[in-house]
């Protein structure tokens, strides 16, 4: 599904390069559930953002769904992202001016899905995450955990082929966290959705089929579960 070859991300500091990612090569097959772990500052979120085309490396080659991402124009990358990828952000990234309902609906508008079908899909998500009563509220009126649930619902609604999750349960209580991880596991095992998550949680990491440990911007180890 995706292949990163000799990916580096660095910042120039005078004559020196400060590497965030240093010569990362990584292949992820369709249907895998990969957990990326490592200490703070090891490059986990940067790697996830590069996989998700939200950030660009300074060096290396990035292939996704057979497309050479490193050669694509921004508009082409954006189209690829919207068609195939759902992103669950640690900081929610909800749109403040939109209600819960409208936030969840947004990816469907990008995909030109008809109004009646959008309505049914959003209703299903509101029900699944038990937030029907919150649908007319704005993000600022929600707790952190509720905002995270809305973020997950928005990421899943367009039925992406790849879900990228940055600390997906970081702001949830343990019960909500387990429910989210079980939803991810079901999507992966029953629907073949590929999932890549960044997590500090050993428990969450074991939901996956492979754990990749980063250290100082490099892959320190890769373990199949």
UniProtKB/TrEMBL annotation:
Family recorded in the similarity comment: Belongs to the ABC transporter superfamily. Macrolide exporter (TC 3.A.1.122) family.
One GO cellular component term: membrane protein complex
CDD domains referenced in this protein's UniProt entry, alphabetically: ABC_MJ0796_LolCDE_FtsE (cd03255)
Domain of life: Bacteria
Gene Ontology molecular-function annotations: ATP binding; ATP hydrolysis activity; transmembrane transporter activity
Alphabetized Pfam families for the sequence: ABC_tran
Protein name listed in UniProt: ABC transporter ATP-binding protein
Keyword tags: ATP-binding, Nucleotide-binding, Translocase, Transport
Keyword Nucleotide-binding: yes
Location of the ABC transporter domain: 2-225
UniProt cross-references to InterPro entries, sorted A to Z: AAA+_ATPase, ABC_transporter-like_ATP-bd, ABC_transporter-like_CS, MacB-like_ATP-bd, P-loop_NTPase
């Amino acid at each position: 599904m995706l292949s990163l070859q000799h990916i580096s991300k660095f910042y120039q500091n005078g004559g020196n390069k400060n590497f965030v990612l240093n010569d990362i090569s990584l292949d992820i097959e369709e249907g895998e559930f990969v957990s990326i772990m490592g200490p703070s500052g090891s490059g986990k979120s940067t790697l996830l953002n590069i996989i998700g085309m939200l950030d660009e490396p300074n060096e290396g080659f990035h292939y996704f769904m057979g497309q050479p991402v490193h050669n694509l124009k921004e508009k082409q990358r954006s189209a690829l992202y919207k068609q195939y990828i759902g992103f669950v952000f640690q900081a929610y990234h909800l749109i403040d001016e939109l209600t819960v309902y409208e936030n969840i609906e947004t990816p469907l508008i990008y995909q030109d899905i008809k109004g009646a079908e959008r309505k049914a899909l959003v209703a299903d998500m509101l029900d699944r995450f038990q937030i029907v009563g919150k649908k007319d509220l704005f993000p600022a009126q929600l707790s952190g955990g509720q905002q995270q649930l809305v973020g997950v619902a928005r990421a899943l609604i367009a039925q992406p082929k790849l879900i990228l999750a940055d600390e997906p349960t970081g702001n949830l209580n343990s019960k909500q966290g387990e429910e989210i991880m079980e939803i991810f596991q079901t999507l992966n095992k029953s629907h073949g959705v590929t999932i890549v998550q960044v997590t500090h949680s050993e428990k969450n990491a074991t939901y996956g089929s492979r754990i990749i440990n980063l250290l100082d911007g490099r892959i320190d180890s890769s373990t199949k579960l």
